[in-house]
């Protein structure tokens, strides 16, 4: 495995090193977001809604999730006589912070998805320039085998860039959709709290 990575770096040069670095960063972001968003699953929302409907709000804080704590805060505020507008503004602020936390690092993931194929293309162009310069230095007539080898090495960076961009684009789209779902469910849940 390490030999294969070293071979890719040797053939593709610094552009491949940059692409591999972006791949590691992107993969780390995806894993962190999957773990973070798992806590705010649809079943978690359903569980909190059921607790509200059964008026079992004492157990909300025991859920040890940001969702349970937010709803518990709203229920306590409602029970404590906090004015509706004040409580609504406070819950909206806290809910927006929760959604903001859910969406954090999605923009860098999106940039990795966008930049990877462009960096791959840059590596290809640089590799083609090197291949043609080498061909020119060899002979005035050129050697097709040398040119083909240079082109193959140059295209490697494009393939790596696309290989990074495609899964990162898919992961970004899935995570962004998940954050939108959480925002919608959270809005509905907070309306339920305020209606109590």
Q: List how many beta strands DSSP finds.
A: 0
Major sheet summary line? none
Number of helices: 7
How many domains is the backbone divided into? Answer: 1
Straight-line N-to-C gap: 59 Å
Low-pLDDT segments, ≥5 res: none
Order of helices and strands: HHHHHHH
How big is the Rg?
26 Å
Helix content: over 70%
Mean pLDDT: 87
Shape: rod-shaped
In percent terms, what proportion of residues is strand?
under 5%
Task: Determine the structural class based on helices, strands and strand pairing.
Answer: mainly alpha
Describe this structure in words.
The protein is 85% helix and 0% strand. It has 196 residues and is an all-alpha fold. Helix 3 packs parallel to helix 7, helix 4 (66-79) packs parallel to helix 7 (144-194) and helix 6 runs antiparallel to helix 7 (144-194). The longest helix is centred in the last third of the chain and has 51 residues, at 144-194. It is rod-shaped.
Q: What's the short story on this structure?
A:
This protein has helices at residues 2-12, 14-38, 42-53, 66-79, 84-103, 106-138, 144-194. With 196 residues, it is an all-alpha fold.
Keywords:
rod-shaped
What is the element layout, followed by pairings?
Blueprint: H1 2-12, H2 14-38, H3 42-53, H4 66-79, H5 84-103, H6 106-138, H7 144-194
Helix pairs in contact: 1-2, 2-6, 2-7, 3-7, 4-5, 4-7, 5-7, 6-7
């Amino acid at each position: 495995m390490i030999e294969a990575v070293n071979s890719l770096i040797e053939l593709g040069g610094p552009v491949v090193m940059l692409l591999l670095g972006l791949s590691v960063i992107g993969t780390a972001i995806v894993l962190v977001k999957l773990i973070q968003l798992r806590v705010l699953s649809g079943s978690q929302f359903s569980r909190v809604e059921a607790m509200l409907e059964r008026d079992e709000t004492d157990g909300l804080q025991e859920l040890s999730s940001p969702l349970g704590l937010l709803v518990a805060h709203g229920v306590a505020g409602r029970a404590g006589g906090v004015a509706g507008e004040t409580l609504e503004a406070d819950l909206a602020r806290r809910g927006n912070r929760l959604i903001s936390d859910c969406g954090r690092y999605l923009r860098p993931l999106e940039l990795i998805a966008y930049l990877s194929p462009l960096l791959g293309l840059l590596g290809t162009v640089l590799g083609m320039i090197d291949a043609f310069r080498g061909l020119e230095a060899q002979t005035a007539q050129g050697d097709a085998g040398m040119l083909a080898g240079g082109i193959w090495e140059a295209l490697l960076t494009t393939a790596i860039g696309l290989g990074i961009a495609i899964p990162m684009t898919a992961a970004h789209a899935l995570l962004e959709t998940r954050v939108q779902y959480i925002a919608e469910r959270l809005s509905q849940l907070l309306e339920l709290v305020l209606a109590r």
